[in-house]
Amino acid sequence: MTSATDPKVTPELVAKHGLTQEEFERIKKILGREPNFTELGIFSVMWSEHCSYKNSRLELKKFPTTGPNILVKAGEENAGVVDIGDGWAIAFKMESHNHPSAIEPFQGAATGVGGIIRDIFTMGARPEFCLNSLRFGPIDGCSGGRVDRDVGGTPATTQKQILANRRLFTGVVSGIAHYGNCIGIPTIGGEIYFDESFEGNPLVNVFCLGVLRHDQLARGAARGVGNPVFYVGAETGRDGLAGAAFASRELTEESKEDRPAVQVGDPFKEKLLLEACLELLARDAVAGIQDMGAAGLTCSTCETASRGDTGVEIDLAKVPKREPGMTPYETLLSESQERMLIIAKRGKENVVREIFEKWDVPCAEIGRVTNDGMMRVRNNRSVSAEIPAKPLAEEAPLYSREVKKPSSVEAAVSAAQATRLPLQKIDNHQSLRQLMRDPTIASKNWVYRQYDHTVRTGTMVKPGSDAAVFFVRYANKILAATSDCNSLYCALDPRTGAKIAVAEAARNLTCSGAKPLAVT
Predict the structure, then answer these.
(1) What is the pTM for the complete model shown?
(2) For 337, phi and psi rounded to 5 degrees?
(3) In this structure, how many other beta carbons lie within 10 angstroms of the beta carbon of residue 254?
(4) 151 close to 415: Cβ distance less than 8 angstroms
(5) Choosing from 97, 99, 178, 453, which is the catalytic residue?
(6) Tell me: domain 11-59+219-394, CATH 3.40.50.300, correct?
(7) Domain residue extents for the chain
(8) Strand, helix or coil at 355?
(9) Are 271 and 126 in contact (CB under 8 A)?
(10) Run of H or E including 413
(11) Could you tell me which CATH class the domain 78-214+427-483 is placed in?
(12) 80, 207 in Cβ contact below 8 A?
């Protein structure tokens, strides 16, 4: 299975792929042999933090994920699904795209929007609106309501850093606006904070909500041995190569030059893909459907096989490509956007081809569902990779990391406790003006007006209120959603800060006349 052109798998190559020696030994035990270069790349992305949550899953399992309204719980599928009565449900999710946005803010943010929208219509839901939650370093002389000077009285943020933060801020907002406006899904709310702790490493979280009937719920599982596997959507290129592994690494000056790891999005292609997929789901031709997001074709193939307790065999020679000479490693690890994997019901192949031809979306039958539990990847006659699907998708090593309060938090608390404000000397008018000029507090109208928040004509409460409120006419339902968190509270006391965030979100929904149902 090893190609003559593949690099030899060495300890240095293993480390370069972000795997420890202990993890490599575990891989050899799973395979019963040493992995080849392509298989090493597959494990590196699937066992990255971005895909496996190996450093956080033990904590995430502590969340309450069941309830009377929950139809699909967190972590079970591409998005959570909650019953809203009368046979209707909502699918929603929030996802981050931090590292790509730090390197290429426009495309990083735009593809973050595209990815979260695909997660929603993969569930069989029509996406209705988006929100976002953004964090940046200071973009002027204030930061978080504080004059831009540290405790010692020296400038805390240089002019060069401020300009870099402004580039990230304007690029991210433009990217979100571009993708949402072009695909025709309104961005109707969100929040933005500025603080030195996000210097050069912004947080870009995007939320999407869709609506579906209970009987329209789709699953990302490869069921039905012998069912054909289709690749639909944009052709595969080299953009976003190993993006999942990149997103799991620490952001450094060196990694900031890794622009090929950032995906490039096309909202017009995604609009066609969205409509084609929803039409196909309505024709009862789909046994399983999965977005090609993080880890691309690799993740969609092994995850659907694992969920379905089956295997999947694909032929990379049949995968539509937009660049010549792509290797199996590149084809499997590419994160080109606007792509889906569909497990069609046997006998419905022509229905799949007919619908995607109608919407002018590339479509190719690339494989089939098997009964051996293996993810088997061929490239014409040669086998490029052969890995048990379930260990790859679900059995990454889990770590419980040492927890320690940062010394900077202790210093900040001590400095705050030692500070005494000269209240008798404060000019109230001047203090108010200073607070109102802080970007965190000031009006976000410059941001909101870039988003087409009235497209689809369902927006009842515009951005800037306690919560976004949206009317879904075909379901005769009014939905409210909000994004809330004070990052400084969470930095000082994570547990208390998180409780405050949930409570604030619930209050904002209640103040809008809505009943809080679930959190993502």
Answers:
(1) 0.92
(2) -85, 175
(3) 7
(4) yes
(5) 97
(6) no
(7) 11-59+219-394, 78-214+427-483
(8) helix
(9) no
(10) helix 407-418
(11) alpha beta
(12) no
Beta bridge partners of 88: 85, 213
Could you give the CA distance from residue 504 to residue 466 in angstroms, rounded to a whole number? 10
Which one, of 316, 318, 313, 315, lies nearest residue 368 by Cα? 313
Q: Which two tokens stand for residue 126?
A: 């029509």
Tokens of 175: 């990217």
Contact 219, 154 (CB under 8 A): no
CB of 156 closer than 8 Å to CB of 427: no
Q: How far apart are CA 194 and CA 185, in angstroms?
A: 26
In sequence order, which residues have a C-beta less than 8 Å from that of residue 268 and are 6 or more positions away? 182, 183
DSSP 35-80: --HHHHHHHHHHTSHHHH-TTTHHHHTTS----TTEEE-TTTSSSE
Find all residues with CB under 8 Å of 61, minimum gap 6, and list them: none
Q: Where are the alpha helices (DSSP H) in 215-335?
A: 243-247, 267-282, 296-308, 328-333
Residue 10 CA to residue 33 CA, distance in Å, equals: 14
DSSP alpha helices (H): ranges in 123-194? Answer: 159-183
Strand partners, 339: 233
Provide the residue type at 185 as one letter. I
How is the chain split among helix, strand and coil, in percent rounded to 5? 40, 20, 40
Q: How crowded is residue 54: how many other Cβ atoms within 10 Å of its Cβ?
A: 17
Active-site hit among 50, 99, 178, 453: 50
Give the pLDDT of the chain (520 residues) as one tens digit per residue: 666 678 999 999 999 999 999 999 999 999 999 999 999 999 999 999 999 999 999 999 999 999 999 999 998 999 999 999 999 999 999 999 999 999 999 999 999 999 999 999 999 999 999 999 999 999 986 554 343 334 333 355 688 999 999 999 999 999 999 999 999 999 999 999 999 999 989 999 999 999 999 999 999 999 999 999 999 999 999 987 755 555 555 655 555 555 556 888 999 999 999 999 999 999 999 999 999 988 899 999 999 999 999 999 999 999 999 999 999 999 999 999 999 999 999 999 999 999 999 999 999 999 999 999 999 999 999 999 999 999 999 999 999 999 888 888 888 778 877 877 776 777 888 889 988 999 999 999 999 999 999 999 999 999 999 999 999 999 999 999 999 999 999 999 999 999 999 999 999 999 999 999 999 9
CA distance 344 to 350: 10
Tokens linked to 228? 């054909």
Catalytic residue check, 178? no
Q: Two tokens at 185? A: 């899904």
- CA end-to-end span of the chain, whole Å? 42
97 is catalytic: yes
Residue length of the chain = 520
Please, what's the largest Cα pairwise distance for the chain? 83
